[in-house]
Design brief:
There is one protein chain. The protein has 460 residues and is an alpha/beta fold. The chain is built from nine helices and 32 strands. The strands form six sheets. A ten-stranded parallel β-sheet has the order 1-2-5-8-13-18-21-24-27-30, covered by helices on one side. β1, α3 and β2 form a beta-alpha-beta unit. α1 packs across α9. One of its GO terms (biological process) is polysaccharide catabolic process. It holds the Pfam family Pectate_lyase_4. It is found in: Secreted. One of its GO terms (cellular component) is extracellular region.
């Protein structure tokens, strides 16, 4: 078995990295970038080639239409190495408020750790620096305690001050990315305390970066969310909205040393300061997310943000392959409307707070093939799907390894239907055609994906 695993890993690594070193992926007419043009440090020849790599043909939904080439045609003056928030904003166009409209092809290499809370002079801000003068958590808790305020939405001066505080944080920690852009990390690259916002643009690549702790300083209390109310946060680590042809590859998503599980309880509910890791919403489509690692988070990936039948119909088409979902609790992903191809992903699921893996939402069409689920104590195959108002999901060739048991094939729909009503149909009504390279047998998936998914696996 060791020889088989090693062989599969070598094959997969070759398939993943080889195109980056092939001259065919450096667009014709674009010269190799001289280190003298870079903003801070020289790049190796392989790093230069990886920065100009385009999504291989047929690699998921992001290869549809014109495909995804990111900043591969960037001229030498549009290749940057950045080490601070200010340099990141400058490299993306110069003005964070308008960078989303900057469609000039550009390649941005991230070096070291960049903190979204970094101030203009390089010092780190905290939540109090971004808070409106009329807001404090203590004042908010006092004003909207359900025992005093009741179970109605907060309103009035303190809530208005919270909203202004959110506007301040958004202006500072949401980093806007324009079209025709590649953001790629050098070894050890980390973006912490920020949201990479990809909104109303096309043709974006994000690779080889650890995204850490995109915390919300000003969560909102929603007293009618669920039976007991909930705290809700705003900021994702990467948010794809109203955009097309986006490739998210070989990144790591984590809350680091600030997990939601360590937050206090207010109004009897966990004070949650994080939202999604990678959310794809608001009519976005043609996205491929591959070889990423998602570590120990609660809410992970939302595909589609509303049950309203309208503009999302025919959109939200996403491919997820060779990702590692390790210790996360829900939304792996949760899907509405879109045709979502979910294959060769590895799941390590555990914990008393685990809720579900794949959420079958309104008019969703998930095709889940050859995924592997390693289950902790108390989790069964019947817990892997959740009906959020959907009707069908295709599941083929998936395996589970139960706690204390041996790996075995599983029919996810049959396992779900055996203990839940109403039944889900086993036919989502479509068959994926956009796949690059071989689809691995499910038993090999954890052996390959485990060591190869996530940031710092590319030779940068």
């Amino acid at each position: 078995m060791r020889r088989i695993a090693a062989g599969a890993a070598l094959i997969t690594l070759t398939l993943t990295v080889a195109p980056a070193s092939a001259a065919a992926h450096v667009p014709a007419g674009v010269a190799a970038v001289s280190s003298s043009t870079l903003s801070s440090s020289a790049l190796s020849p392989l790093a230069r080639q990886l920065g100009r790599q385009t999504l291989p043909a047929g690699d998921g939904w992001a290869s549809a239409g014109p495909g995804t080439t990111g900043g591969s045609t960037a001229t030498a003056d549009q290749v940057h190495v950045v080490t601070t928030r200010a340099e990141l904003v400058a490299a993306l166009g110069g003005d964070n408020a308008t960078n989303a409209t900057n469609s000039t092809p550009k390649i941005v290499y991230v070096k070291g750790t960049i903190d979204g809370f970094e101030g203009p002079d390089g010092t780190l801000l905290d939540c109090t620096d971004l808070a409106d003068p009329g807001y404090s958590l203590q004042a908010y808790l006092a004003a909207y305690d359900p025992a005093v305020w009741g179970r109605v939405a907060p309103s009035g001066p303190v809530e208005e001050a919270r909203v202004r505080s959110v506007t301040n944080q958004t202006r500072h920690t949401q980093i806007n990315v324009g079209a025709n852009t590649t953001v790629i990390g050098l070894r050890g690259a980390r973006l912490t305390g920020l949201t990479l916002m990809i909104d109303r643009v096309s043709n974006v690549i994000v690779r080889n970066i650890t995204f850490d702790d995109a915390r919300d300083c000003f969560p909102a209390w929603s007293p009618t969310d669920g039976e007991a109310g909930n705290w809700n946060s705003q900021y994702d680590q990467v948010s794809v909205r109203r955009s097309e042809n986006v490739w998210i590859e070989h990144n790591t998503f984590t809350d680091g040393d600030n997990p939601d599980s360590a937050q206090p309880v207010h109004f009897g509910r966990p004070y949650q300061v994080h939202d999604g890791a990678l959310d794809i919403t608001h009519t976005a489509s043609l996205v491929t997310a591959a070889w990423n690692r998602f570590d120990g988070r609660d809410k992970l990936m939302l595909i589609g943000s509303s049950n309203t039948v309208g503009p999302d119909v025919g959109r939200l088409n996403v491919t997820l392959h060779h990702n590692l979902f390790d210790g996360s609790l829900q939304r792996l992903p949760r899907v509405r409307f879109g045709q979502v191809d979910l294959y060769n992903n590895a799941y390590r699921l555990a914990g008393d707070d685990f809720e579900y893996a794949i959420g079958v939402g309104v008019q969703s069409a998930v095709y889940a093939e050859n995924n592997h689920f390693t289950l902790g104590t108390g989790i069964t195959a019947a817990d892997l799907l959740y009906d959020w108002g959907g009707t069908a999901i295709t599941t083929r060739g998936n395996w589970v390894t139960p706690a204390g048991g041996l790996p075995r094939p599983v029919d996810l729909v049959a396992a779900y239907n055996a203990v839940h009503d109403p039944d889900l149909s086993p036919d989502a009504g479509w068959t994926p055609t956009l796949r690059h390279g071989p689809v691995l047998p499910a038993p090999l998936v954890p052996l390959v994906v485990g060591p190869l998914a996530g940031a710092d696996r590319l030779p940068l």
